[in-house]
Amino acid sequence: MPVIEVDRVSKRFGELRAVEDVAFSVEKGEVYGLLGENGAGKTTTMRMMATILQPTSGDIRIRGFSVRREPVEVRRCIGILFGGDVGLYSRLTARENIAYFGKLYGLDDRMLAQRMESLSSMLDMKEFMDRRVGGFSRGMRQKVAIARTLVHDPDVILLDEPTTGLDVTAANMFRRMVARLQEEGKTILFSSHNMGEIERLCNRIAIMHKGRLAYAGTIEGLRNKVKMNDLDDIFMAMVEGGGLDET
User: Which GO molecular function terms does the record list (predicted)?
Assistant: First the structure.
């Protein structure tokens, strides 16, 4: 059974149809890419997965738990990072920010210390773990936010534009981290506008356009479908209304 099942889910805000009849699934240990231009509906879809928004129709199941009927169980097994403002407490240190969220997830002091040591090493954060976040660069803040997302060792990880603000070195670190998490059996769904990043990390993808699913399947299958090779060209063809009219 897939770890993530998006089952014909729709979300409306009044008359606005933000997401319409979207369906795809993600298998255990898979790194799955979610693509789409701004306003395509991918963040709304991820917010429904995270139980922040409730679907208007359809359902999403995470490890068999319904976001509609079992939101608490869903939240226990996911880690979430959304783009934009990463929502850290500027007067607290990186360590204190991560510890705060670890405590919310019920980690005891020993486990929390172990997790922070592991994450600070994985994300190359040791030099600034005990500095206040208020003076951090965007990339440093993003690393803390990623550590906060992973502190409770979730089975399913939702990442919306996770490399925003990261320089080339840090972005490479992120890719190594994703590979390591995949080796550990984690299931990862992430959105990105970086086609090279998607291609390096993912075998299967979903592309959204104007709230609908334009494609769900393998990258190779997508290339065969549209008779194009470059993912950037394929993405632009979708945005401009050509080549990807249906799944």
Answer: ATP binding
Tell me the mean pLDDT in the region 212-222: 93
Q: Is residue 195 over pLDDT 90?
A: no
Residue 100 forms part of a structural domain: yes
Which structural domain range is residue 97 located in?
Answer: 88-153
> How many domains does the chain divide into?
1
Q: Is 127 contained in some domain?
A: yes
Spatial distance between the Cα atoms of 217 and 206, rounded to a whole number of angstroms: 7
228: amino acid identity, one letter: M
The SS3 call for residue 39 is: coil
In 3D space, the residue among 2, 6, 31 whose CA is nearest the CA of residue 186 turns out to be: 31
Q: Is residue 76 part of a domain?
A: no
How, if at all, do strands 212-218 and 204-209 pair? antiparallel
Kindly state the tokens that stand for 11.
């979300």
Angstrom distance (rounded) from CA 234 to CA 195: 10
Look up the pTM and report it.
0.90
